[in-house]
Protein 1
Amino acid sequence: MGPTAALEFCKFAKFKPETRVGNMTDQELVKLSDALQTYEGFRSPDPTCLAPLGAEPLEKGIQRRFEPDFMAVVQRTASAYSGFPFVVEMGIAYGGKIETRGTTVYRFANRIPLLYDEGSDVVLKVVKDTDWNRYKVKSDSAPFIIVSHICSTRVPYKTVGKENVADRPEIEKELRLALQFLSRKLSGYMSKKGQAEAAKKRANLYSKYLPLVAQFCTELSGKKKEPNYEKMIKEETAINNTDENKEVEKNG
Amino acid sequence: MAKKVTKKVTKKETKKEKIDKSKKLIQALKNHGAQIYEDLENGEFPKFSIPNRSISNIIYDKKLRQYVLGTNASLRSARNSSQLRSFTQLLWLAFFANKLTHEKKSSTLRDVYYSSQAFAVDFEDQQESDNIIVDLEAVLSQPREDFFVFPEERSSIFGDLTIEYTIPGYEGKTQNLSSHPDGYAIGPSMTSAQLTDTSAEMVIAIEKGGLFTRFVEEQVDKKFKSIIINTGGQAPRSTRTLLKRLHDELGLPVVILTDGDVYGEHIAMVIKSGSANAAHLRELTVPDAKWMGVWATDIDKFKLPTIPMTESDIKRCYDLLKDPRYEEGLWKRELEVFIKIKRKAELEAFSKYGLTNITEKYLPKKLEESKSF
């Protein structure tokens, strides 16, 4: 730590820079420890030693594997727990060639897939804590997947088998923020999709029933020719088409 | 003789009235069709205005002596995507009713449900099509029988009444309703027939088929110069229509004989003043009809064997007490006696004193009594 950062910290912790640690009272030591914990000015440990995937390769990977209708990825900035730097990367995808139903989580740690003991992993904990209804996703039947990658100089595995990551608060927080960010994007997609589906249903309804209405009222009123109602159907479907175009633009 | 002449005059009038009624219906249907046609032609979404049939919009009209609908109406528009389907169903039914009326072909509620399938207008179940039928009744304020949709027949009529059929294939054919002792079913051909001639001086409506047969056997029709009608429980609307016609067209008083319980009392009330269910319809009631018995007070008076009321019977009594029609007179008095004695007696209870007791003792006494109220 350089002298500038040290002075900044002393100011924050309300210690005189000259104070020697060896002369501190017990009370002062506790105060110092607390200050070290709460001070936010320290720089994160250098993450350049980490090898995250990067958003783009992650996106390409998901695309190639699932060809989803919707996809979003995020790489969080580096963070640290107990002095170890780590980076969380996450991707979410919906529809397309995803064949599983409900939440399926693909876990990676330092580019290694974690296959077993999924239930006790911190990623699963975060996913399960999420109220998917808020994001308009039916978590038990929707075709969607989550890919998570934790990359660290020391991944805190729970067991020697290195199959599940322990729930360190710092990691959990990063995972949560990443998932929330992605879920919000998914939610935007879902509501658009819902609207588009409703609009399509509506258009179908009009093209099914208006001809019948025309037929019956023509016979009922004793007229020979059916009224010119086609333009009404066209108008209804036209409105919907523009809606759908917008949809594609945004996602593309 | 003079009486018969007057009746024949009425007959001509009713015939004219009937044709008018049918014409009016066809015209009303046509107007709706034309309005919708015009809307479509102008690129506007057509709509129906349907009187609201919820309880909050049902009012008792003291002058008409029946339940009527208030002024609340809801719009069913083709613009609203959630109403488009039921709008189409309603229009289809109007179209179908028009066809039935033109061809004078009758159909049942079930027929309507199946007929819709030929036109790609799908009803999920019969309940849905039944509801639409009531909607159309409300829109036209005419009962479904007017557009030839009939429920299944279960009531019958017997007595010296000559009718002349108007349905296709039987036009002009006459029939005297005293020639078959089991009685004649009250169906579409009966309700639409001309009532040409009768020597009867009143109509007796009975709740039960068994008693109807007894009355025919005992020649109540001749002894009391009456037409006997079996309502088969709660009188179907075609039967109520016929009762009204017998009363209005032939000037015959109507008396009603039911079981001595709360349901019987209500059967009489429905003939007299209609049901809340049919508040959107007029002309189904016989306000002058008289409930002759069996009254709660008759149970003690005639020492009838009784059975205890069930809890739901008693609950029904209290429910009816809240009905404005039961607020006064005989209706309230009898209900209160039922509640007090908590027992009921069926029409068959008279058999304790011999099979003919009801026709020989009870009936004449009550008929005499009924003249005074």
Protein 2
Amino acid sequence: MSPQTGPGRAFVFGDNVDTDALAPGVYMKGPIDALAGHCLESLDPGFAASVRLGDIVVGGENFGMGSSREQAAMVLRQLGVAAVIARSFAGLFFRNCLNLGLAPLECPDAGRILAGDLLTVDPVAGRITNRTRSQTYACEPIPAHLLEMVSDGGLIPHLAKKLKTQKRTS
Amino acid sequence: MGHTLAEKIIARAARRDSVRPGEIVTAKVDLSMVHDSSGPRRHKPMLEQLGAKPWDPSRIVVVTDHYVPAFDAESAAILDLTRKWVREEGVDNFYDMEGICHVILPERGHLRPGIFAVGGDSHSPTAGAWGCFMFGIGATEMCGVLVTGEIWLKVPSTHLVRWTGRLGQGLAAKDVMLALCRNLGLGTVKYGVVEYTGSAIAALPMAERMVLTNMAAELGAQTGIIAPDRVTVEALAAVGVSAPDASSWQSDADASYAKVWEFDASVLQPQVAAPHTPENSAPVGDYPDVRIDQCYIGACTGAKLEDLRMAADILRGRKVARHTRLLVAPASQRITAAAAADGTLAVLTEAGAILMPSGCGACAGYGAGVLAEGEVCLSSTARNFKGRMGHPGSKVYLGSAYTVAASAVTGRVTDPRPLLAEKAAA
Ligand code: SF4
């Protein structure tokens, strides 16, 4: 996750977007690129085909509720989504995003963003800029104790780095 | 100021005297559970990439339940990889097609009050019924636990949910939970802990208590928990677990809660949740004319021995309606065996129920029993999100095993109480 992303187009969804909508169970045993093709299709059948690298998904309350399947976050990354903005997140999904290097941004103003708006996000500073509407929104910055992991690109690269230093020092 | 049970377990695992909500701590993991979908098929490549080994195979439990029995080449490959991985890594706690992970853990004696555990599944809070602090995490985070034996968490605040009174005839923990989903909403608890208490909870057997902690996930909680009591201690003894300190794991009388919720169980009516969220629940009487194609008694939260007996209470001497099918997938092999031994299974199959293997089955759309476009299902599972049990154009209603069985008899959403009363009168 780079500190600054965008501009990307906003794809806007409502409250309680669930993990079955993000990563439908029927396709869970297949490879991630096949699963990604069905991402959010129950809410917007055209989403996977039209989303492009750098675009941003926007939700309402409790985004990512439901299952622990982290494929719900992986498919968004697979499709090139740069960040997810929501008024609130389900805790499990929030953790999964951070571990996979996808920025989850909790933003009380998420409701002001409309489909197609061009957004720039700075997850470290906690700032979202809506270029289309010339507005700036504050969002929760990435928690301080996770900054290093997030800037390493997620948990696995972070662990790889740590294990390497451990080996060197031991 | 005292501490809640959850705070005490976290403090113990984080090697601290005490913790307060909002603090960020790193805790040592006593037990980690993964299943075939979230487990080795995902960890193996990550561990290889890191050149790392699991920190302690004796603290890992692996269960195959999502893709069992294999139904095509891909699911067979996932199971095959899982079996090979546990052999290579020396994981002895491996339960292959023996039941659903959340039911296997207590059934095989892996839970003890006071333990701090993580699971590669969102319904891992189920273990809270046994006085454990257990929550669900994704596969990448689980890989971190497998390597380090530790995990960070922000100490959650606790909501106390008290149910006074007693549940009436024909009511079950699922009704309590569906009413809570409506009353609290799916996000209110905001990754806190839900601690259940009160006379109606104390009267429930462990299997029913597990429905409440299991579906704490639906309330948006990090986990659910119930303080151990006599019922817990007896159930632990029954599975051969000695836990002399069990009853010491309690919230302090002056613990501080984010919120206290009070409900009266004696006025609760059977609840049914309409598509496509468990929050969408109402008393069963509010659904006068909903025709059903499939009735499903299954899942970690809806197919324990108690559920099968509830269904048998309704179905004894009755038949499943024409044009409706009733699928029953007991939550574990041991439950199937117990239900066969006490005659419950015979009642179900004589009524026309179709017996399915123990596993997740149709619950999450992984296994057999999924729905076609336009089909309507009434299910004893935990979630009815759009497309979860099959085609996005199918509809899933949720209810207790009593309600599902009663509805299988009529082919429509039906209040189980009159059917039970008829029985009692006969
Ligand atoms: S039965 Fe359903 S809810 Fe339970 S673990 Fe399996 S898929 Fe999840």
Protein 3
Amino acid sequence: MTARPPVMLSELQLDALTELVNIGVSKAANSLRAMVGAQVHLSVPTVALVSRGEAIGILSEREIKNLVAVHQVFEGDITGRALLIFPETKSLELVRAITGGDLPLEDIIELEQEALAETGNVLLNSCLATIANMLHRSLKMSLPEVLRGNATTFFSLAPPPEAGDVVMFLYIDFAVRERDISGYIAMIMDLPSLTALTHLLDEFIERTTG
Amino acid sequence: MTYKLLIVDDSKLARMSAAKALNALYPDWTRVEAATADEAVAMGSRNSFDMALLDFNMPGRDGLELAAELKAANPSMPIAIVSANHQEEIVARANAIGATFLQKPLTQHALGTFLEAAVAQLQAANK
């Protein structure tokens, strides 16, 4: 089997993608702010075309081993997965912030799975729906799934990538300083989607600036 | 009377989009663009502009910090902060500085409303 040529994004396409993600995550932050009742701080997004191994490396470097992720698969003209990731130690704090903080620990632990799935669902949908709308396409979202593990676990999820080892990896940090909550939103897209993405980005650029 | 608009955004696409809207609204106005707050400040010392459109989330100093600096130098300059991040704290900080908050993606209509108010403000200040 011959390797597919790597898809390169032009500077403007990369810029447009970063801006789309920035707007998508900002909208998601608004939703999170409404849920936790405190300001959500965001970093500037990072978009990189890297190998799966490098993406795992980026995550492993910055985070401790025990991570919790809410994971959703999106399908349509572009296919990939979106993850809301944070250290396991912060997940109860997030649930506590969302439920209002009056619940005893046992109840919080019991609610954790469900609350995480729902929070992830709201954030990731808000982010992806914004991006889909701006690209004038609809994306089908899977149900949220709560995962525990590390970067390698999250990036080796079934189904296996259709082709190539290169993925589009995007991430943005978020923090709720008042509640000591921090984590990030990451998105990975496989190469076949990337080709479709470049066309969608060109259309988007044309609509926005033409 | 034509004016000069400063557009600061780390995204080139966002600057192009704002430029497109400006050209549709006021084709005879001029604009200057910068990708960072520092670049905008350096530019400000070389050429003047009448009003500014600042992205919030940028590498280095954010748009609110830049807005505060521009306002300190020229309190009557109309400034808009542009962001998809319309959390209360950010909108409140923009208002406290005396800046208008505009949502991203920026529409021609929203930009038009801001520019109209900005012109009225500048004309009132020059009377």
